[in-house]
Amino acid sequence: MNLLDWLHLPLMQRALWAALAGGVGCGLLGVLIVGLRIPFIGVAAAHGAMAGAVAGHLLGVSPMSGAFAGACLAVWLIGPIIEKSRQEHELAVGIVFSTMLGLTFMGMSLAGGEINRLLALLWGSILLLPPDRLVWMAGATALVAALIVGFYPGLRALLVSRKLAAAAGLRDAFLMGLVLTVVGLSVAVYLEALGGLLIFAVLIAPAATARLFARSLPALFVASAALGAGGCLAGVLLSAWWNVGTGAMVIVVLCAAFFVVLIFRRREATRYD
Predict the structure, then answer these.
(1) What CATH number has the domain bearing residue 146?
(2) Is the residue at 273 inside a domain?
(3) Would 272 be classed as within a structural domain?
(4) Is the pLDDT at 269 greater than 60, yes or no?
(5) Alpha carbon of 44 to those of 54, 55, 133, 180, 227: distances in Å?
(6) How far apart (Å, rounded) are the C-alpha atoms in residues 247 and 15?
(7) pLDDT for position 65
(8) Is residue 88 a part of any domain in this protein?
(9) Closest CA to 180 of 64, 82, 261
(10) Would you place residue 266 in the very low, low, confident or very high pLDDT band (cuts 50, 70, 90)?
(11) pLDDT reported for residue 10
């Protein structure tokens, strides 16, 4: 079957729409989490979503509801851990990540014959998404865009310096909590398509690449969203053409774009103004 034949299949069409929605949403979120220097929050949220989905399956409730709860719990735990233990942010994220990973595999060991279905959460199943998931993914991407547009001045100040934002009277704690919540909810929605082990690359690589050439914060958001969408779409198409894993191909494309831009870049760091 050639690539044109693949494009006529409903499952491929759904996969491309999912890649577009997920790539744009993750690209926009990536600018925030990379700019706020919390890149590994995506890993914690993804594994929290996986643990919640597995728990939901075992308890007989919607895995999507469990993923929402798990992702939000994961990102909300980080702040209290830092305050109580006086540890660095990266260590707190590592503790949350490890806890959620352990809970995920413990739950999978209890799943019995359903383990193959749950393992799909690790790698993603963008080619097997039901139609209603596209609506959820589009909604999550719209939520991310609404966050950026609605709170742009405050987010820009946070990206410059959280301390300066607080000194200027901005509600930095509220904005950080809002960003973390949206990250958790969005990652939970994207989990089934992109996979818990792969979503980190889709969150980080487009933003990291865009920072190499974007000259302003608006340009950074646009470039990262475009790179996320383009990389996901190209990865899905190339995986069908070459008959390789979709998630792996998406990561290779996104990371290859980073290295190409890195080699040829000629600019200074992005300015948040």
Answers:
(1) 1.10.3470.10
(2) no
(3) no
(4) no
(5) 15, 16, 22, 11, 23
(6) 12
(7) 85
(8) yes
(9) 82
(10) low
(11) 81
